[in-house]
Design a protein that fits this description.
By secondary structure, the chain is mainly α. It is built from 14 helices and no strands.
Length: 318
């Protein structure tokens, strides 16, 4: 293909990409402009915070398309959807197309952060401490147990029927006994998170061990490696991809379980905050809590993906 033909193909693609970038910048600029020119609330701090959030999102978009300038389509699509949702929300509340009691204006929702920031920050730390403790215990126990079950057929024959019965049971079912038997809400919630994360990780480890090529295992035995070394040097690295698949499912179930547990019986946490606001029909507080919860989930899944990509970086070199 000649240089001229390559240029003719490159130019429309580049032009389309730039137009998409301008469209996303335009949506956020329009939102920013109408937020300050036509304030949708009598609370100035809400307007300022919503405007600051729009500015932060615009800056984040600019940084992302600069970092991923060779392939920015995913970033463009993500921010385009986000911008359209925010624009639709703002316009719908301005024109009273939806019930503004159930769906308050963006400025009213962001005003909650200036009034309730201490409860929200406390709730974030409370939720993360429970989630982190329960999930960490699940990983620490499920990985070695899964390696033994996958490696030893006799153990597998005993453990498989038990796992088949216990793993589909929703962890929230254990809540009455967790609350009755454990001395605090922290311990009972941690136990539920542990149960929710343990089974998916365990199944992922077992499946990962089963998927390892038997020729590799036979070679390790032929070399005279002991069982501990085989587990550390062969089974664990070989099943790592399945472990992360199970760990991601366990993390998602942990989030759901944590929120449900906090809504039912907690006195702090993001789930409790959303439930508390809903009891008084403060839907601006409900939406504010939901936005924070979504940001926390996104932040943790980004960290999870980074850790996974780093540990499985050898896959990209094959």
């Amino acid at each position: 293909m000649s240089f001229q033909e390559k240029s003719l193909q490159w130019f429309p693609t580049k032009l389309r990409t730039n137009l998409q970038h301008l469209l996303v910048f335009g949506i956020f600029f329009v939102l920013f402009a109408i937020t300050f020119v036509l304030p949708n609330t009598s609370i100035p701090v809400g307007t300022n915070l919503f405007g600051a959030a729009l500015g932060l999102l615009t800056l984040l978009f600019a940084i992302e398309i600069y970092i991923h300038r060779e392939d920015s389509q995913k970033t463009v699509d993500l921010f385009l959807v986000l911008g359209l949702v925010l624009l639709l929300w703002d316009v719908a509340t301005r024109l009273s197309l939806i019930d503004t009691i159930l769906f308050p204006t963006p400025e009213a929702v962001f005003a909650v952060y200036s009034q309730d920031y201490s409860n929200i920050i406390t709730g974030i730390f409370s939720s993360l401490s429970i989630l982190g403790t329960g999930y960490l215990f699940a990983v620490i126990l499920a990985v070695p147990i899964g390696l033994v079950i996958g490696w030893r057929k006799r153990v597998y024959n005993v453990a498989y029927p038990i796992a088949k019965v216990a793993s589909p049971v929703p962890p929230i079912v254990y809540m009455p006994y967790a609350i009755a038997l454990l001395p605090s809400f922290f311990l009972s919630s941690t136990f539920l998170i542990f149960i929710g994360a343990f089974w998916p990780i365990l199944v992922g480890v077992i499946y990962g061990v089963f998927s390892i090529d038997h020729r590799i295992l036979n070679s390790a035995k032929t070399l005279g490696l002991d069982e501990i070394t085989i587990m550390k040097k062969v089974l664990l690295p070989g099943s790592m991809q399945s472990i992360f698949s199970g760990a991601l499912i366990g993390l998602i179930i942990s989030f759901i379980t944590l929120t449900a547990a906090e809504i039912v019986g907690a006195s702090s946490g993001l789930g409790w905050y959303i439930q508390y606001q809903s009891q008084f029909a403060n839907y601006d507080g409900v939406l504010a809590g939901m936005i924070v919860l979504a940001i926390v989930v996104i932040f943790i899944t980004i960290i999870f993906d980074r850790v996974q990509n780093y540990i499985l970086r050898w896959q990209n070199t094959n």
